[in-house]
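Supplementary Methods. Inverse-folding protocol.

Structures were first reduced to a C-alpha cell string of length 129. This string, shown here, constituted the complete conditioning input.
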C-alpha cells in the first residue's frame, strides 16, 4: 500500500510529535520537583534536580516551539546521558533495563533538532525554523 497520501501532512505531524513528546517530557520534571502528576519515587540529588529543571524549562520551550532546535539538541543529550548513566549498566536491551523512554526521547529530540519544529510553533510564526 502506498502511503504517499500522508506526505502533505508530514510537517503538521512533526509539530504534533514535538508537542506531545515535549509535553510528556515536561511532566517528568514536574513529577520530580513539584510532585505532579504523582510523587517522584526516588530521593532527589544534584543530577536529578538538574535534570528536572531541564525537563521543565526545555519541555515548556519545546512544547510551544520556541528555540526548538537548540533546546531539542540539549534535551537529546540529556536523555543520552540519562540512558547511559541510569540504564545501560543494567543490560543491553532497553526493554529489559528500563531505558525505553530515555532512548525514545533521545532520538525524537535529535530528530526535532535536525528537522525543526514544524509549522505549529512559535519559531515558525517568527520566521525561524
Amino acid at each position: 500500500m502506498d502511503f504517499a497520501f500522508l506526505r502533505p501532512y508530514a510537517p503538521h505531524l512533526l509539530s504534533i510529535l514535538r508537542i506531545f513528546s515535549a509535553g510528556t517530557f515536561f511532566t517528568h520534571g514536574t513529577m520530580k520537583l513539584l510532585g505532579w502528576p504523582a510523587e517522584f519515587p526516588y530521593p532527589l540529588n544534584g543530577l536529578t534536580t538538574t535534570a528536572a529543571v531541564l525537563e521543565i524549562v526545555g519541555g515548556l520551550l519545546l512544547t510551544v516551539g520556541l528555540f526548538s532546535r537548540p533546546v531539542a539538541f540539549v534535551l537529546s543529550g540529556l536523555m543520552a546521558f540519562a540512558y547511559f548513566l541510569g540504564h545501560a549498566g543494567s543490560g543491553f536491551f532497553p526493554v529489559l533495563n528500563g531505558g525505553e523512554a530515555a532512548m525514545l526521547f533521545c532520538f525524537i529530540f535529535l530528530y526535532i533538532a535536525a528537522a525543526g519544529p514544524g509549522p505549529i510553533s512559535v519559531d515558525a510564526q517568527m520566521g525561524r525554523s
